[in-house]
Design a protein that fits this description.
By secondary structure, this protein is an alpha/beta fold. It has 14 helices and 19 strands. Bound molecules: ligand PMT.
Amino acid sequence: MKIVLGVGGGIAAYKSAELARLLMQEGHQVQAVMTAAAQEFLRPMTLAALTGRRVLADLFAIENAIDHIRAAQENELMVVAPATADLLGRMANGLADDFLTTLYLAFTGPVLLAPSMNVNMLAHPAVVANLETLKRRGHRIVEPGVGYLACGMTGPGRMAEPEEIAAAVGREAHRRRDLEGEVVLITAGPTQEPLDPVRYITNRSSGKMGYAMAEEAAARGAAVVLISGPVALRPPFGVELVTVHTAAEMRREVLDRLGPATIVIKAAAVADFHLSRVPPQKMKKTAARLSLELDPTPDILAELGGRKGDRLLIGFAAETENLVEEARRKLRVKNCDMVVGNLVGSAEVGFEADLNEVVLVTSTGETVTVPRAPKREVAERIFDEVLKLRLALHAAQ
Ligand code: PMT
């Protein structure tokens, strides 16, 4: 691949030389672009010698007159390593005050970011917000490692090792846009089922898993419709967001948008029960006890299973025990092509957590375990398996 390697002004800049060497060794073409601060840590000559190309840095040097546009058009992947707090802030906010940030705004391909900074800076709300903005744009983050930092502190913030970044580049080279042309309909988050005008029942779904699926699908070229219960997340860029509250509303929106969908992913935690007749007034605390008669909500997944057509239907199963058996049961009973089983009930994975670990069961009899990882990486693996399943089902026809 043709890669722009953006180097920010952090002590980890010295590792970008090793990264450049690895990428060249793997046959990529590397165009290094350095910020002024980066040149305080690493001489451009080092990267020029390793990549065999002049290093681009000064936006106003006459020989670089339109190079930022040409560099943006010629290259297929942009890697920023180290991505310092300053660089992340300028990229997140669309500043273009040097060659690298100007090139970034003109670049339309996938972007890989390797943050590197002091542990407290990484946790600062401004940096957290900038990273969230960049993730919502579909950029991939090669998470910083935990360890000894140049400032003498220990904790998260060390730039990922060059080998790890090079591996992420390899995945990106493989992935490209393999969901181009797909229309992916995704449900995410909880539903809220009213008990009276001021109360409702809900669950602990944060929407993170479903939103990670939407981010991943959009980054791989799919047209994405995200039907979401109430969550505190902002939708990935380029994704059509439809907000709902109740299971009934979610069902209506899913059925309204089902037509063009080629892949349906039901990651939402839809309430199983609701109050059929919601009283018009707030229930008073008169009686010592309150008992409620709840009725089942419409099972949207089962209904989709009955009208699947040739689209792929992927359900989720939130279990506290018998994960694989329950996932297989739901696969069969709801006529899914795949069910993503995940254990819920612990704080580390499942509801609300940033991580997840899942077991995928498919209609072709496969059982695939995806080990604990950030939900975006789990989403990546799920879509890899969805595409393999699609090929297996076509081959079986
Ligand atoms: O949102 P997060 O905080 O990231 O948490 C992620 C998650 C744990 C919510 C997610 O990974 C997950 O497991 N989602 C499914 C939760 C759920 O409702 O599982 P279930 O086993 O109760 O339902 C099985 C399937 O039927 C699900 O695909 C669900 O969307 C669907 N369903 C359930 C009830 C209903 N009335 N209609 C449905 O379509």
